[in-house]
Design a protein that fits this description.
Layout: E1 5-6, E2 17-19, E3 40-43, E4 47-51, E5 54-61, E6 72-79, E7 83-87, E8 92-95, E9 110-114, E10 117-121, E11 136-140, E12 145-148, E13 152-153, E14 163-167, E15 170-174, E16 177-181, E17 184-187, E18 191-195, E19 200-205, H1 212-218, E20 224-228, E21 231-235, H2 239-244, E22 250-255, E23 260-265, E24 282-286, E25 289-293, E26 304-309, E27 314-321, E28 330-333, E29 338-342, E30 357-361, H3 369-380, H4 389-394, H5 399-403
Parallel strand pairs: 1-2, 13-19
Antiparallel strand pairs: 2-30, 3-4, 4-7, 5-6, 7-8, 9-10, 10-11, 11-12, 14-15, 15-18, 16-17, 18-19, 20-21, 21-22, 22-23, 24-25, 25-26, 26-27, 28-29, 29-30
Length: 411
Amino acid sequence: MMEIEQQSDGEGKVGKFYLVEPVQSRHAGYKVPYPRSGHCCVTDDRNLYVFGGYHPEYQRPLEHPNPEIEGNMIIFNEVFQELWCFNFDTRTWCEVETTGEPPRQTASMSMTLAGNVLLFFGGTCFPWGSISNNKIYMLDLREKRWSVLQVTGEKPPKKYGQAIILLQDKLFVYGGCRQISEFEFLFDSDLHMLNLQTQIWSSLSDSKSQTREMIEARGMYRHGLAHYNNRIFIIGSSWTELYAHKLQTKLHAFNTDTLEWELVNIAPSRDDDYPERRVYHSSVQCGNDVYICGGHNNVKIYDDVWKLSLSELRWTRLTAVMPQPAFFHSAAVTSTKCMYIYGGVTCLEDRVRTSDVYKIWLEPHIPSLLELSWKTILSHIPDIYGVPREHLLMLGVPRHLIDRLKPVWPV
C-alpha cells in the first residue's frame, strides 16, 4: 500500500499528495463530515466549503436522554443537507449554522462562489431523479442565510449531475440527467445561460437544435466546464464516447461568439499519451489549465492526475497519483494552484466512501516571509483557534491573519 505523507506544512513540494488530517480529530466531541459522495465543494483560498452529498448507509449516533446509552441508528440512502467548512490554517472542520430554507435535493448538485455568496443549481434526492431542482439557491456567507434567486426566461429543466461555470455576471449550466418517465432517464446536452444582472435565463443550445446523435455524443453527467477565449469546453465523456473511444483525444466546445458547437482536437502529452475516457472524475480550472483526476470506466477506478493546457490544447500527465483512487469525489483549487480533494467512492461496488482531505501543489509556490512566519506560529500553537482574539492582537499578530482563523467569513 502506498505510504501517504501527512501534512506538516506541505509547502514547496510540488506534485505530491498530502493527507490533511484535522488537528482536532483526536479530541472527544469533535465532529467531522460523515463520508460521502456526490457532494460539491469550492474554496475561497482560506476555507474549503463542502455541501450536500450522499451515503447509502448513514450511521447516525443515537440521541438518548440517558448518556450511558450509546449506539448508532442506520439511515439508508441519506442525502445530506449540511454545509461544512474546513479552515486551512487551523485544519479544523465546522458545520455552518444557517438560517432560511436550504435546498433538499443536494446529491449531484452544482456549486460556485461569487464574492461572498455561494450559488447552487440542480440536484436530486433518493430515489434518483424522482425529485430534482432547477432553482438558483444562494447562501450569503456573511449572513449565513439561504434565499432563492427570482428568475425569468427560458429556465433549464429540473435535473442533477450538471456542470456550471461563472463567467463575470453570467452563469452557464450544461448537461446533467433528468427523469423523463417512470423508467427512462435522459443525459442531456442542453446549455443555458443566466444573466445575474437581469436574472433572465437564455437557452443557448437544447434538444430542439440538436440531432439525437449529437445529444447522445454530448450528453454528460458529473462532468466539468472550463473557459478559454470564446470557448466553453466540456471536460468529460458521454456514455457513448466512454464505450466507443478509449482515449480523450477530442473535447466538445461551445463557441460563445458563433453559438455553435465544435469538436476540438487535443494534442497528446510529450510522451504521446492521453488520459483514458472515464466518468465521475473531478475537474478544476486554474488560469488556462484544467486538472482532472480519478473517475472510473466500469472496470477500474483511476488514480491518475492530468493537466489540460487550454492555450496549447495539450494533455500532460502529472507524476502524482491519488493516494485513494476515487470517483464521485469533488475538488477545488486555490489561486496559488493548491488543489484540495475531498470525499468520494473508493470501490466499484459503490458501498465504501471516504471523508479524507488531500492537497497537492500543482505548481511551485514561494510563500512570502509573512506567510512563512504565520505557518511557524500555527505549527507552534496547534490550538490557536481557541486563543482569544485580543490575546493574539496583543502579541502583534496582524488582524487580517487572525480573521483567517474564523470559519466561513469574518463579520
